[in-house]
């Protein structure tokens, strides 16, 4: 059953990105769903709230898109499926 779910995610070209509030553990129960062709940090911010993208300073990313965990990234960083993101505002 798990393999079927993974195959569905691949076919739909969607990725799951998890949020991590500062000083807390990641929320792995409620991912932000992004399209594979719109999966930058900026797209992630806009999906949550328009003002978050405007107030964005940088983000910490854990997961396969990061060169090391965590990695400090900008708005143009492309996210991978099941990455964890912590946004730092100005």
TrEMBL record:
Listed CDD domains: TGS_DRG1
Highest taxon above the source species: Eukaryota
Alphabetized UniProt keyword annotations: GTP-binding, Nucleotide-binding
Transmembrane among keywords: no
Family matches, as SUPFAM superfamilies: TGS-like
Stored Gene3D superfamilies: 3.10.20.30
UniProt key word GTP-binding: yes
TGS domain segment(s): 13-89
GO MF terms held by the record: GTP binding; GTPase activity
Protein known as: Developmentally-regulated GTP-binding protein 1
